[in-house]
Amino acid sequence: FVADTLCSSEATISPDPLSSDWEWSENQTFVISSGGKDTEYKVVFTALGKQPEMKLIFSDEFDVNGIPDSEKWVLCPYGTSDWCNQMSESYDQAYVKDGVLVLVGEKVDGIHKAGGIQTKGKFSFTFGRVECRARITKYPNGAFPAIWMMPSESYYQGWPNCGEIDIMEHIQQEPHIHQTLHTNYPYNLGYKNGSTARPKCNFWDWTVYAVEWTSESLTFYVNNVISFKYDNMHLPDEVTKKQWPFTKEAAFHLILNMGLGDSGSWAGPIDDAGLPAVMEVDWIRVSSLDNQ
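Predicted structure:
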């Protein structure tokens, strides 16, 4: 109503907040005059205080065609875990083209191959904000694209004690993505409340996934909207329950990958007829926080 009133050419406001000699108070009264009628509004202002400043410490805009920047990335290795048991260790499934990183899961000469890159051994950090703009353009059953983080330097040894930060995962034909924290506390002890979220979003279109990591919490976002927050509970028996491995002594690296599942995996069996599976990444950025 106030905005509509002020749009009238006859409306005036007193005191004028645009005046150079006006100073606001926490409880401010304004009078709007329009059509010979004065209406009084009382407004309470709340000062936000100093917000943490961010400094960019890592980024890749994927602007140069070919293999990803070797100063920043290495290929994800083949392994026995669900996410990497089809990893090709080849740039044929992980390459930059037309300003985006392309990660592919496909079947070549009867062999399933998936692509992924990580900053392990190149870049890791403690506390900050990670943002990644990505889209999943082809996602047949069995596709397992992910944007996530693992520790290069662990506070607790062994998984899940060491911690895992899943900024985005998608499986099957679900209408949502998964954002999850893995530690001993939810995974082995079963305290799962507040450790995961399944926000719906248009993941097939460009979407910005993010996590902000401080000494007190990990806050997850989709397109700058908070999806969930995992707090440091400062448990008196932390050394036993291992709820918070995300300390200043633990540095995490970045992983971007397309995985392929199988009949026994979370992602399920692969729909060969629907391959290739494709995730594209426009950019990824990491900023430090000045209050950490």
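Summary: The helical segments are 2-6, 184-187, 238-241.
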